[in-house]
């Protein structure tokens, strides 16, 4: 598609979301967290060396560790339809709205004034959100129409028809016709496509309609050009903390277990008539979100794009490549090396963190295993943090957003140069071993708990948490982007189909980010962390003690209390390939 970014006039900047208090707020009490004392100490200002060995990352470590933690912004909100609850996460008060199918009866009130919801796009999120919304509104006995909008000639029309959306029923049609006729437009096309088509999209929206986003990427793109959204529409976001197939899979499971689903954040960027917060919360409840927490559109895109390049995908890809190579070079069989890297992270470690927290991973190890964990954690924390720090600042500066937009344009022939779509990464030795391992894996097998791999992975998770904390993100956002989305959504899919499958089949922005940043994590671990281990660098006891005392463990436990009592079910033979990729293949 041709770029369309040069002629739109800058609009007036929109006021930030109102910080209002509601009389419907209630306090949710949580049990005492046994593994944290009431006077947990704050993180020490850590030294500049990596595990005391002076190898690399020293400048990054010193800069990150010495700066003060930025206090999270106030994210209170007002709702006249749903009941919000106050939670305390690591000493910070936040507000959430619980989900559940028993709340579907409130959807007509939340969506008051909306006759048609247009779902634009049929990629990762489109199919899941459209079906969940439709099914929830039917259960609520609402006559609101959910209509899919696709570009003419798209082969995704067949996919939409296969799940019940049709032209004859008025629930499937042309993208521009759907936008023009919708009161709530859920823009779920790829980030790069949004960047290239936003002018035409805005021009087709009705005055006082609502633009719904599931990612803040478009705001970041507009900001990079000094622009904002048109001032005659409301702009909200509901951002599920998992890919589309997870959103649909857990919603279906939720028909049997009330509240099963994927958590979501919501944001009100612009509200022209006072309806925006209730509409956004209704959207989230209709998707099946167990709980919805507040953020801003800017904080969302920074944490989300960063997270995709970090522990959600890019960093996991990088560390398993590095560790598989190390284990096999040191004499471990290929099958065992794969089990002790990928299977260990996506299975055993993820399930343990999901249900019991990070400390439970360490506590389940033998005394010798704990030493291996500490060695790996100590050596890996700062090399991981160095890359994460750089990545966050590239996202915040707009560099990653610009990179995604330009990459999307290189997918097509232009300027006499050939097209360069993303190639697949699943043909190398490690991923072929993975195919063999999964074929022979017993049903329900979560793989081993290998202490060294656990130490590296948990160090990565804690380093990402620390970066987001220092950058002022709320604990809800930190935990969902760094822990819950990883262990409850993405990793189970990777366990079923492999890391390479996920890198080849998730959103375009995430796939691009993983390919760009995974080699950086691989390099830093190989050149710094593993060299430190081989050189016998002493364990950094401050890092280990700070890990044990970090208040994030208590915050994760609070979030676990809100978790549905169901794990996502991912059949190994399920087809989770995105429609456009299935067609191109």
UniProtKB/TrEMBL annotation:
Record bears the keyword Repeat: no
Residues the entry annotates as binding substrate: 366, 507
Cofactor: Mg(2+)
EC number: 1.1.1.86
Domain KARI N-terminal Rossmann: 97-295
Cofactor: record remark: Binds 2 magnesium ions per subunit.
Record domain KARI C-terminal knotted: where: 296-444, 445-581
Cell compartments where the protein resides: Plastid, Chloroplast
Protein name: Ketol-acid reductoisomerase
Pathway(s) annotated for this protein in UniProt: Amino-acid biosynthesis; L-isoleucine biosynthesis; L-isoleucine from 2-oxobutanoate: step 2/4; Amino-acid biosynthesis; L-valine biosynthesis; L-valine from pyruvate: step 2/4
Catalytic residue list: 215
Family, similarity comment: Belongs to the ketol-acid reductoisomerase family.
């Amino acid at each position: 598609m041709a770029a369309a970014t040069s002629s739109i006039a800058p609009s007036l900047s929109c006021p930030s979301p109102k910080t209002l208090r509601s009389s419907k707020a209630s306090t949710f009490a949580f049990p005492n967290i046994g593994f944290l004392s009431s006077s947990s100490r704050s993180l020490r200002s850590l030294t500049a060396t990596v595990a005391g060995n002076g190898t690399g990352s020293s400048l990054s470590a010193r800069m990150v560790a010495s700066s003060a933690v930025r206090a999270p912004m106030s994210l209170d909100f007002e709702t006249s339809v749903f009941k919000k609850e106050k939670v305390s996460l690591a000493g910070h008060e936040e507000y959430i709205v619980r989900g559940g199918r028993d709340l579907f009866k409130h959807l007509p009130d939340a969506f008051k004034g909306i006759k048609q919801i247009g779902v634009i796009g049929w990629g990762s999120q489109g199919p899941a959100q459209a079906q969940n919304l439709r099914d929830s509104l039917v259960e609520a006995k609402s006559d609101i129409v959910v209509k899919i909008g696709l570009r003419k000639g798209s082969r995704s029309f067949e996919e939409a028809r296969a799940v019940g959306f049709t032209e004859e029923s008025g629930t499937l049609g042309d993208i521009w016709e759907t936008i023009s006729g919708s009161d709530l437009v859920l823009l779920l096309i790829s980030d790069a496509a949004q960047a290239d088509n936003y002018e035409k999209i805005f021009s087709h929206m009705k005055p006082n309609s609502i633009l719904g986003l599931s990612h803040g990427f478009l705001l970041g793109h507009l900001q990079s050009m000094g622009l904002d959204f048109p001032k005659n529409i409301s702009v909200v976001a509901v951002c599920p903390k998992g890919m589309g197939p997870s959103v649909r899979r857990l919603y279906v499971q939720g028909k049997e277990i009330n509240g099963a689903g994927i958590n979501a954040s919501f944001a009100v960027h612009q509200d022209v008539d006072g309806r925006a917060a209730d509409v956004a919360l209704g959207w989230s409840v209709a998707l099946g979100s167990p709980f919805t927490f507040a953020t801003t559109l800017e904080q969302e895109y920074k944490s989300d794009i960063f997270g995709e390049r970090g522990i959600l995908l890019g960093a996991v890809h990088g560390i398993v490549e590095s560790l598989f190579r190390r284990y096999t070079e040191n004499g471990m069989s290929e099958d065992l090396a794969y089990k002790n890297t990928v299977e260990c992270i996506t299975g055993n470690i993820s399930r343990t963190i999901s249900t019991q927290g990070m400390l439970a991973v360490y506590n389940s190890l033998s005394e010798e295993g704990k030493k291996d964990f500490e060695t790996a954690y100590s050596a890996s924390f700062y090399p991981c943090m160095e890359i994460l720090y750089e990545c966050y600042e590239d996202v915040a500066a707009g560099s990653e957003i610009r990179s995604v937009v330009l990459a999307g344009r290189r997918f097509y022939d232009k300027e006499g140069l050939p097209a360069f779509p993303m190639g697949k990464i699943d043909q190398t030795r490690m991923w072929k071993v993975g195919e063999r391992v999964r074929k022979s894996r017993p049903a329900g097998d979560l793989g081993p708990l290998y202490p060294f791999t656990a130490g590296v992975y948990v160090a990565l998770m804690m380093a990402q948490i620390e970066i987001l904390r220092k950058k002022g993100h709320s604990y809800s956002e930190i935990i969902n982007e760094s822990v819950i989305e990883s262990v409850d959504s993405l990793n189970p899919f990777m366990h079923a189909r492999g890391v390479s499958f996920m890198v080849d089949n998730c959103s375009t922005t995430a796939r691009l980010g993983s390919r760009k940043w995974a080699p950086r994590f691989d390099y830093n671990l190989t050149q710094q962390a593993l060299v430190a281990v081989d050189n016998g660098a002493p364990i950094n006891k401050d890092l280990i003690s700070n890990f044990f005392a970090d208040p994030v463990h208590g915050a994760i436990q609070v979030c676990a209390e809100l978790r549905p009592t169901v794990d996502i079910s991912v059949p190994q033979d399920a087809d989770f390939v995105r429609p456009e990729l299935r067609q191109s293949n």
